[in-house]
Amino acid sequence: MKQLKLSIKPKQEPTEGQSLNSSGYSVKINDWELGRRVTDFKLEMSADKKPKATVTFTPDILEVDNVAVDLQILEAFDRAYSDFIAKTQNEKEKSEQRLQDIAKSLTIIERYISLRQSLTREGWEELNSLYDYQLNEKERNLSKDITLDDSETNVFHKHAQMVLGLIE
């Protein structure tokens, strides 16, 4: 890792009681001078440790992986990333809703399975014979170019439900 050279020089000599802050000092890291964007500067010097300088600033340009990035570009990226996260969250919520809808339709299938398990062999045979009868009637009527209307289909459904004991 490359070592950084920190240079701190007073712009004017501090008077007694004056605090050390960035406005009265020129702060340089290597050859780069921190100017207007310095927001805070602290110098800690304890007897048993090395001196520690902390400079808080907002640079005009950031370097990320040896590529200079302008702050405006970085802010635009942050906005685009936030929009992407919001869109992804919205799509996730929609997907979860679709899964809930599918789960509701599964209960209909479960009811069908339950009904099928509750019927005796004779009950299924009777239901299948009614279904076959309707298919044969439809085929016969289609050959005559006559189709079953909705009322005929509804009559069949009601009859099948009565046979199964679902309605009285």
SSE arrangement:
Layout: E1 6-10, E2 25-29, E3 32-34, E4 38-44, E5 52-57, E6 61-64, E7 67-70, H1 71-118, H2 121-143, H3 150-164
Antiparallel strand pairs: 1-2, 2-3, 4-5, 6-7
Helix pairs in contact: 2-3
Question: What would the keywords be for this entry?
Answer:
two-stranded antiparallel ribbon, rod-shaped, three-stranded antiparallel beta sheet, alpha+beta, 2 domains, 168 residues, 51% helix, single chain, 3 helices
- Enumerate the spans where pLDDT stays under 50 for 5 or more consecutive residues: none
Oligomer designation: single chain
- Percentage of β-strand residues: 15-25%
Count of the domains: 2
The SS-based structural class is alpha+beta
Major beta-sheet overview: 3 strands, antiparallel
For the record, give the distance between the C-alpha atoms at the N and C termini, rounded to a whole number.
Answer: 87 Å
Q: How confident overall, as mean pLDDT?
A: 73
Percent range of helical residues: 40-55%
Order of helices and strands: EEEEEEEHHH
Shape: rod-shaped
| Count of discrete alpha- or pi-helical segments spanning 4 or more residues | 3
Strand adjacency order, main sheet: 1-2-3
> How large is the radius of gyration?
41 Å
- Number of strand segments: 7
